[in-house]
Amino acid sequence: MTDVLNIPELPDEDDTEGLRAYLTSGISAILNDPKLQLQPNVYMNLYTSVWRLTYREKSNESARSDVPYADVIYHDLVKMLADHVQLVLEKLQSQEDSLLFEAYLTEWDQYLMAANRIDRLLNLINRHWVKRDVDEGKPDVYRIRTLHFVQWRSYLWDKISIAVIDSAQLVLEKSHGNADKTHDMLKSFASLQIDYSARTGDARTRIRESLEAPFVPEIIAHERNLENIIAARHN
């Protein structure tokens, strides 16, 4: 993971696989340690590797044409995120029920920080390749940050949400409805006016909405935008 950070120079601009591995290692380093302090020259090298790969073309014999190498970067990221999030899921599944809620929030904060950093690093992919494909109405292509959220929902949240909500209710009930006496992680729930004293469906719905608020609306907004683009093309 850290090898890329110790390389003084980029791989040669003609070394496509070397550049690809260099970028992959940098992204993996950020995913595993979102607070990692990259030296300015290292960050510039990573950004340069994105630029060189984005404006490179790869052979696509089946289509008998050239396609942007940006799609290779994108699909490398799709797999990296899936693998990373599944490891986070396994880590959370090993937590005790009473500790799961806090552990989930910690992992989410780390993941969101990484998502924002990687989104900035791959901004060139967003501006050109992703925007073009989205404007053309192609499915399963998302802005880099939104892609992080899609993978989080698919590979983690959909599989563990019920357990996380159970854990959240358990913690909230122990606070006896007084959010001021709970851990800082519960402060955001105070404004929801949840009935902490009972396991009501409404309380669970509000907890779910609060936990999904940081990522689900952005996914929904993308999906609606895509629907509008497709509808406009058929009018």
Let me know the largest β-sheet: 2 strands, antiparallel
Which residues form runs of ≥5 with pLDDT under 50?
A: 59-67, 177-183
Number of strands: 2
User: What fraction strand?
Assistant: under 5%
Descriptive account of the structure:
Belongs to the cullin family. GO terms for molecular function: ubiquitin protein ligase binding. This protein is mainly alpha-helical. The chain has one domain (about 65-235). Helix content is about 70%, strand content about 5%. The chain has helices at about 5, 15-30, 40-55, 70-95, 95-120, 125-135, 145-175, 185-190, 200-210, 215-235, and strands at about 55-60, 65-70. It has a two-stranded antiparallel sheet. Mean pLDDT is about 85; it is low at about 60-65 and about 175-185.
Quick structural gist:
The chain has helices spanning 3-6, 16-32, 40-54, 70-93, 97-121, 123-135, 144-174, 187-190, 201-212, 216-233, and strands spanning 57-60, 65-68. It is built from 10 helices and 2 strands.
Architecture blueprint of SSEs:
Blueprint: H1 3-6, H2 16-32, H3 40-54, E1 57-60, E2 65-68, H4 70-93, H5 97-121, H6 123-135, H7 144-174, H8 187-190, H9 201-212, H10 216-233
Antiparallel strand pairs: 1-2
Helix pairs in contact: 2-3, 2-4, 2-5, 4-7, 5-7, 7-9, 7-10
